[in-house]
Design a protein that fits this description.
The structure is a homodimer of 77-residue chains. Chain A is an alpha+beta fold. Chain A has a single domain, classed as Mth169, Chain: A, CATH 3.30.1280. Chain A contains 2 helices and 3 strands. Chain A has a 3-stranded antiparallel sheet. Chain A is elongated, with a radius of gyration of 16 Å. Chains A and B meet through strand 1, helix 1, strand 2 and helix 2 of A and strand 1, helix 1, strand 2 and helix 2 of B. Strand 2 of chain A pairs antiparallel with strand 2 of chain B.
């Protein structure tokens, strides 16, 4: 089974990487860009029987810094 | 409107960051982890009228290195 974890900086936390991407896109003529935030996607190949609680524990302990980042877990099956 | 772009290394391209995460998770006792791949998520705030073709162009020109990375665009509204 697979799970997809998306980790993003929380709202209000400055995202210089996203700002840099926004500036670059505007500089290339993509005028419609109003905001950019950049985060991480982690896809996990998991043994059968691994639960969403296990994946949440991985996020809390390693994958996300929950002080400044939020995460979402999507169990693909 | 918003768009979410997910950029992952193509299958077959070595992903040392994912391997490092896998090793760390196994070392922490998460025995069910069989594979990890890490990529980028970019959320874009866009002016109304921006099309998926525009976002695809952003990916081709800046957001993804299409030699080694694949991307997926999800137009949220």
């Amino acid at each position: 089974m697979k799970a997809t974890v998306t980790v993003m900086l929380k709202t209000g936390v400055l995202d210089p990487q996203g700002e840099a991407v926004k500036s670059a896109l505007l500089g290339m003529g993509f005028d419609g860009v109003q905001g950019v935030r950049q985060g991480k996607t982690i896809t996990l190949d998991l043994a059968d029987g691994t639960t969403q609680d296990d994946v949440n524990a991985m996020c809390e302990k390693l994958l996300a810094n929950t002080v400044i980042e939020s995460y979402a877990v999507d169990m693909d099956t």
